[in-house]
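Exercise (ungraded).
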Amino acid sequence: MTSQLKDKPQKTTRPTLHTGNFIAGRWVEGEGPTTRRLLNPANITEQVAAVREASLEQVDEACTTAAAAFPGWRATPAPDRARFLFRFRELIEKHFEDIAQLIVRENGKLLSEARGDLRRGLDVVEFACGISTLLMGKTLPEIARNVDSHVALEPVGVVAGIPPFNFPAMIPLWMMPIAVACGNCFILKPAEKAPLTGSRLVELFAEAGLPEGVVGVIQGGKEVSEKLITHPQVQAISFVGSSAVAEAVYSLGTKHGKRVQALGGAKNHLIVLPDADLPRSVPALIGATFGCAGQRCLAGSVLTAVGDKAQQDAVVSAFLDGAKALKLGDGLDESATLCPVLSTEQKQRILAGIERGVQEGAKLLLDGRNATAPSHPHGCFVGATVFDDVQPDMFIAREEIFGPVVSVLRAKDLDEAITLANAGRYGNSVSLFTKSGAAAKEFRMRIQAGMLGLNLGVPAPMAFFSFGGWKNSFYGDLNAHGPDAVAFYTKKKVVTERWFGAEAPKEGWV
Ligand code: NAD
């Protein structure tokens, strides 16, 4: 995920904290009714920032400014637009380490994970640098005698981006670079739970020289989002978050005639067959389940051990050993291997999920509820938690907990494991661990999910592929980044043309 070459430590300065709104090329304080305090997840006695949300009038102003900037930006040739992307890319590289530290401060994840978060977002910026090639339409000369046809991709107008808290750099960067490269104006409404990094990225994009109004930032939560989604000047909405909100955003947006892509939550299964290379698979399983404290839409949260009882036990025991070895700590502590969760609210939600598993009768093999990081007594820590004897209809087997909590299911064979994975309402990702090509083929053919992994736990498609799930993990038609994003941020125009006087002679041109 992270490039050894590029991610070597840089000298860092204290990161800029952008808490305002970026409207018409200026940072302005919010004028809305709510101010949210952001606390350091590793130490809630430390306030990182306070962010006052935008007023609805400010949302309106941002949309109007973006709409006013659109004709000029749309008329800017694609190769010229790409140059802003190249400059943006250089600015992110220049400030890479500062931004990674900012991600740790507001989200709590480990610094290595924060670097990965930014690096994966940067991949999308690099993809968008190739916009001239990506926007090439198709042509067919002579669709009829002396008639040519070609299709052109044109920007849709003003696009709003509404990301979640868990990837403060990557997810805004799934949206903004491609939307802008395609010729759209873009307004980011960062997650109110982690708004600083996205705001900083918009600042850098503007610093790359973008004309006023091409990018904007609006701070806020549900009310501000809804104002953006229904605003007459906004043509498309890119949303990533929980399924309940994704569904609501999709429904509200489409009702108002908007184009919407809404990526939702997940309950991802990791299936381990008896022939898997266990020593080499366990680090991948641990990374997938406990990386970012399980706060990833591609986090594995169900571990399905396949085989007879002894084979299942071998998987569970190796996994448990890996989980027990994790060390909780501040994201900036290089020896830590399990980061805090975002906030006290998230911690309470996760603890309630664990409690539900206990109530339903699952067996707690590893209980992280009282785990602490001694050097950080005021951190939002939840230790690695593993349930065994989980039944498929239990809450902890079906629903997203979004924390370092794993439910073990047991299956006698691959057929049963696939049936269990397909039974859920989500369809984001599923991974299989095996040495068998035949099992892999059956898995590929039968699994009902958008992103599959073979012998790796986090099968995140790279920027040049598209990213998205099935079922309740996705609402819409076109996925995030890659070719789908170019299609999402553009409209097709088919031109059919005939030029009188240029007719080919009956015997042909040659
Ligand atoms: P969330 O749904 O609470 O919030 C996401 C965004 O929606 C935020 O910007 C928030 O301000 C906004 N919002 C909240 N309520 C809204 C409403 N009623 N109408 C419009 N906008 C509203 O999600 P979260 O807690 O920030 O993030 C975690 C969730 O995101 C998890 O469910 C996770 O699986 C999901 N996620 C999915 C993907 C994916 O690719 N499918 C990626 C990352 C995270």
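Further reading is listed at the end of the chapter. For now, observe: Confidence is low (pLDDT under 50) at residues 1-9. The pocket of nicotinamide-adenine-dinucleotide is lined by residues 162-167, 191-193, 221-222, 225-226, 240-242, 245, 248-249, 263-266, 297, 400, 402, 428, 469, 473 (CB under 6 Å).
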